[in-house]
Amino acid sequence: MRILALSLDLDDTLWPVEPAIQLAERSLDEWLRSRHATVAARWPIAAMRELREAVAAERPDLAHDFTAQRLLTLERAFASCGVGGEHVDEAFDVYYDARNRVECYADTLPALGALSARLPLVSLSNGNADLERIGLRGHFAHCLSAREFGAAKPHASIFHEACARLGLAPENVLHVGDDPALDVAGAHSAGLRTAWLNRHAATWNDTAFEPDLELRDLGELARWVERHAA
């Protein structure tokens, strides 16, 4: 396995995403209660989440774009209360600022430093996290999101785009992610080598193939790269 670069998933790979989403929902709710009490009363956190899920179900064309889904959700929430759409961008900024206040896993920062010193890294995410805001952008040669590209993992095209940006053949890129379907199966189908980040000691259930590597954390990945990467 001749690995010349890594592609890395973000959410639940570099940090747990659910705490960040919960913080974003609370921050938005607090802002609405202070600025738009009618909207806050009509759309508390649980109801706002249900509305977003409804928007996602109604708009499969936006499945790759969580930002667009969130903006449309806010537009509907404001409109249902007779509040103008001019407040949507400000509400989204409140949500998005909190969504990017992530807390990385303990192994993330040391591993990123070690990995980026040896190989080029590209981030490859279906989510809408902003590595610049988070403070990790300097570790990555390229950043690729489903929203920017127009297609989401596990579609082979987004993996191939990551390889193209690196200027490498898929077989020389190791994709690292936590999701067996989106990350591991998607990358495998696209011809990349695969590393399953299995932080919670889950069981691999796909009988068709197995990941090239199974890792407990990113420190283990950094040690593997030090030993094996070209």
Write a brief structural summary.
By secondary structure, the protein is α/β, with parallel strands linked by helices. The protein contains 11 helices and 6 strands. It has 2 domains: 136 residues, Rossmann fold; 83 residues, Four Helix Bundle (Hemerythrin (Met), subunit A) (Up-down Bundle), CATH 1.20.120.1600.
Structural class: alpha/beta
> What is the number of domains?
2
Residue share in β-strands = 5-15%
End-to-end CA span: 9 Å
Largest sheet: 6 strands, parallel
**What would the average pLDDT be, to the nearest integer?**
96
Instruction: Give the SSE order as H and E letters.
Output: EHHHHHHEHEHHEHEEH
- Given the structure, what is the number of helices? 11
Instruction: Please list the strands of the largest sheet in the order they lie side by side.
Output: 3-2-1-4-5-6
- The radius of gyration over CA amounts to 19 Å
> Low-confidence stretches at least 5 residues in length (pLDDT < 50)?
none
Strand tally: 6
Q: Which of globular, elongated, flat, extended, rod-shaped describes the shape?
A: elongated
What do we call the CATH topology of the largest domain?
Rossmann fold
CATH homologous superfamily classification of the largest domain = HAD superfamily/HAD-like
CATH architecture of the largest domain: 3-Layer(aba) Sandwich
